[in-house]
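I would love for you to help me understand the pair of lines that follows before we discuss the fold together.
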Amino acid sequence: MVALIVGAVVDVDAVDPWASVGSGIASMWGIALALYAQFEQSAAPATSGTQVSADGNGPSRPALRFLSRLLRTLHG
């Protein structure tokens, strides 16, 4: 419904180039952010004494437990 209203009001041919430029800029920002995160993460020193424990009880947060049960129910 919204697409029909916007299509009726906005000249799509005039907006199309600007949408293309906007999506190109957004994708370049995304690539830059991904590269920054990749290199920043690898340059960080590893912390000693980090311990991970998996006791098999699943998520501790109520929302995650709910989603976990829901997915188990849906998938049998």
Observations:
- The helical segments are 2-9, 12-43, 62-74.
- DSSP finds three helices and no strands in the chain.
- Residues 1-45 form one domain.
- The two ends are 37 Å apart (CA to CA).
